[in-house]
Amino acid sequence: MPELPEVESLAAFLREHAVGRAIARIDVAAISSLKTYDPPITALNGLTITGVARHGKFLDLDVDGIHLLIHLSRAGWLRWKDALPPAPPRPGKGPLAVRVHLDDGSGFDLTEAGTQKRLAVYVVRDPAEVPGVRSLGPDPLGAAFTVETLRKILDGRRTQIKGLLRDQSVIAGIGNAYSDEVLHVARMSPFKLASSFTDEDVTTLYDAIVHTLGEAVERSRGVAAKDLKGEKKEGLRVHGRAGQKCPVCGDTIKEVSFADSALQYCPTCQTGGKPLADRRMSRLLK
């Protein structure tokens, strides 16, 4: 799933390649991806892209005051093309969901792999009209996100820190991959309860969040949209690397599987050398 660093890089890529261009037309190949109807998506035809922003994991294209918001969800992606085929795509064929044609012949496809179609496109007058944007927590790379902000978020919550970091209404933009990375940098168990954090723990976690995400954004800066997935995978230290050696201590990276996801961690760095329980349990093995 594209998370904050990748979406920020896609926003930067579109600022460079799409801002100042007019939208010639938009082809919707998967009608289920379009979540709004007023204004209609055809209202964007002939208007100019004047800016690109990011709200958590949402891309926001300002098109002369009308906003085209995109959430790539778990398996979606944005594929830029310097020359798009002029013929409209056949609806419902392949991974293509939406195609945006610009006035110079370039543009981008929004595609989604797999059978669970969750990619979402909104056309709104105000980004806050989108429930997922309106409910977002603070941006972890924004000036308003401080140690004190994080302390207030964690205070009294009897919630495992892994799940809390992934909750978009709590902190915007962190998903499964970067929550694993943040907790590895912080040397914390993913099952640690937020209510148990000391002041020192809060500062350590805050530094890990800002450092990990900031470093990922810098690594992705200037990388072409088509190469961002590979760059992300290359930069991860524990997520998706179960069975490999931890780059910090050399221990074997372990995994905990759940119904629809999995987390990875280093026992030596994060859990005092103890393996975490399997998906049917949520505590350290005795």
Automatic annotation (TrEMBL):
Its cofactor is Zn(2+). PROSITE patterns: FPG_CAT, ZF_FPG_2. InterPro entries: FPG_cat (IPR012319), FPG_N (IPR035937), H2TH_FPG (IPR015886), Ribosomal_uS13-like_H2TH (IPR010979), Znf_DNA_glyclase/AP_lyase (IPR000214), Znf_FPG/IleRS (IPR010663). Residues 2-119 form the Formamidopyrimidine-DNA glycosylase catalytic domain. Signal peptide: none annotated. Keywords: DNA damage, DNA repair, DNA-binding, Glycosidase, Hydrolase, Lyase, Metal-binding, Multifunctional enzyme, Zinc, Zinc-finger. Residues 237-271 form the FPG-type domain. The keyword tRNA-binding does not apply. The keyword DNA repair applies. It catalyses: Hydrolysis of DNA containing ring-opened 7-methylguanine residues, releasing 2,6-diamino-4-hydroxy-5-(N-methyl)formamidopyrimidine. Belongs to the FPG family. This is Fpg/Nei family DNA glycosylase. It comes from Actinoallomurus liliacearum.
